[in-house]
Amino acid sequence: MSNEVFTLRVNGTDREVKDSWLGESLLDVLRDRIGLMGAKGACTQGECGSCSVMVDGELVCSCLVMAATATGQEIVTIEGVAPVGSPSDVQQAFVDAGAVQCGFCTPGLVMAVHDLLERTETPTDTEIREELSGNICRCTGYGRIIDAVQQVAVTRSNGATS
Ligand code: FES
Ligand code: FES
């Protein structure tokens, strides 16, 4: 398979990708070619949600997307959610609620919660559990994560912005 050079738009910046093979996953390109290590490869089979990123506004498992098919699309990773040192409301709520878990599941969970709250302003517990069902953690419960989601929903409905 020949090497290709292509450009991905990631977090608002065009990034040239070199030395990638055509079937390489978006997850591997983000991490190994571009150097964005926030998305994690835990299962690399679309099961765990650790690699979640947004592509043209849709939450996807980057381990299942061929990077070369994402040219011309707006990719947002966990690094693009908020500036360094200025966490998003979701990130801050995770901290405040004690919902930050390990570095594998947390980035994907934060991406999923941002996506959920863009589509559903005040989700119920059931809706939150359903939406996060693709983000797997076998270490602990999801209670504090749900608390964090509800905290953001309440704050946003009171007029605060992210
Ligand atoms: S690493 Fe992509 S879903 Fe688990
Ligand atoms: S997988 Fe991250 S705390 Fe369990």
From TrEMBL:
Output the Gene Ontology terms for molecular function.
Answer: 2 iron, 2 sulfur cluster binding; metal ion binding; oxidoreductase activity
Which domain of life does the protein's organism represent? Bacteria
Cross-referenced InterPro entries, in alphabetical order?
A: 2Fe-2S-bd, 2Fe-2S-bd_dom_sf, 2Fe-2S_ferredoxin-like_sf, 2Fe-2S_ferredoxin-type, 2Fe2S_fd_BS, Beta-grasp_dom_sf, Diverse_Oxidoreductases
Keywords (alphabetical) are: 2Fe-2S, Iron, Iron-sulfur, Metal-binding, Oxidoreductase
Q: Which Pfam families match?
A: Fer2, Fer2_2
What residues does the 2Fe-2S ferredoxin-type domain cover? 4-81
Q: What is this protein called?
A: Xanthine dehydrogenase iron-sulfur-binding subunit
Source organism per entry reads: Ilumatobacter coccineus (strain NBRC 103263 / KCTC 29153 / YM16-304)
